[in-house]
Amino acid sequence: MYPKVKPALARAWRDRETVQFGVTPAHAVVFGPVDTATGSLIDRIDGTRGMALLRAEASAMGLPDGRADEVVRCLAGAGLLDDATAGGPAAQAVRARPEALARLGPDLGSLSLVHREPGGDLRGAAARRAIRVQVRGSGRVGAVIASVLAGAGVGRVEVLDGGRVEPADVAPGGLGPGSVDRMRAEAAGALVRESAPGRAPRPGGSGDPEPGFSLVVVAPRDGLHAWAPDPDTAADWVATGTPHLYAGVLEGTGLVGPLVLPGSSACAGCMERERVERDPAWPRMLVQWRSVHRRRATAACDLGLSTAVAGLAAAHALSFLDGSLPASTASRWEAALPGLHWERTPVLPHPGCPCGAAGGLAEEGRRAVLEQVGGGSGGERPEAS
């Protein structure tokens, strides 16, 4: 074991005997009591020394026998410790790709805060590399989402879209000016390859079957189809249990969510039924709106707002792929120009929808999901001693 205090968390002494690791409440940990010699020992837990050398140096500092092991154990228990050799074969495979490792440094720092066990950052990166995601749409929102997911180490990012790139599709972080007039699927594929930190795994390698999509991100160039998603389009995802996340911009309003977990949270059919009950004129208007959008050449999709939506949607997607339920689960987040106040609306299963979410998710479980995705502050700062 070559223990290392996680470098992602900044250190500061609160007083002469207490160290705080981290600035923000979400991840900060207070560690103490710590005397001067133990503080010096913590400085040396940097991944370059094994336990035998740390014990010897602790002894040379006048610390009692067993103190080095005790400090390492306490740091690990507080989620503050990494190990330069941990993570197993999957982590070793990531370490063997130094160029990709250098690109992913900030992402590994974030993963080390989410996966608190030693080696969790590299295991998380290895897990991302094995994931297959589809992004449906390559406009100002979809293309940026695809590039962010690929750049964050998701191994297989496939973009589905038709037609040719138009000047209005060009966006920083997304399709560039040189993509104009190219087939959208081709241009988006090139963007994903350029964004990725290394080559993607070969599909179906070693004779293994092609993995299914871990997530489908629905980010259509026509934001109406994210605002009012078509249940028929989502039917296959619901039937196969494929999680899917909606994101887009419509008329100067950005939206992220809901993240649909088939059988557990509301789907497009639930949303449509709820809207019809609330507004009987909705189906009639929706037909007209969809007809207008097919003919309309220009959408109100502000570049700043579309970039914010893409970034938030990509972050929510990565959170889900890393094993957590983001705040868009069973919820939709909206922000409209010019104020851009993000507001959350719960999206509940409809008892009349054949997706089964209303029956499959007991009321107690439904409340638990909503509590988890309702957000919250970092709460009190944890302590370790």
Describe the structure.
The structure is a single chain. This protein is an alpha/beta fold. The chain has two domains: 83 residues; 244 residues, NAD(P)-binding Rossmann-like Domain (Rossmann fold, 3-Layer(aba) Sandwich), CATH 3.40.50. It contains 16 helices and 13 strands. The strands form three sheets. The chain has a seven-stranded mixed β-sheet. Strand 11 and strand 12 form a beta hairpin. Helix 4 packs across helix 7, helix 8 runs parallel beside helix 9 and helix 8 crosses helix 14. The longest helix is centred in the C-terminal third of the chain and has 19 residues. It is elongated and about 80 Å long.
Topology, pairings included?
Blueprint: E1 3-5, E2 11-15, E3 18-21, E4 29-31, H1 36-44, H2 51-60, H3 67-77, E5 81-83, H4 88-95, H5 98-103, H6 105-114, H7 120-129, E6 132-136, H8 142-151, E7 156-160, H9 184-195, E8 215-218, H10 224-227, H11 231-240, E9 244-250, E10 253-260, H12 268-278, H13 282-295, H14 303-321, E11 331-336, E12 343-346, H15 357-360, H16 363-373, E13 383-384
Parallel strand pairs: 4-13, 6-7, 6-8, 8-9
Antiparallel strand pairs: 1-5, 2-3, 3-4, 9-10, 10-11, 11-12
Helix pairs in contact: 4-7, 6-7, 8-9, 8-14
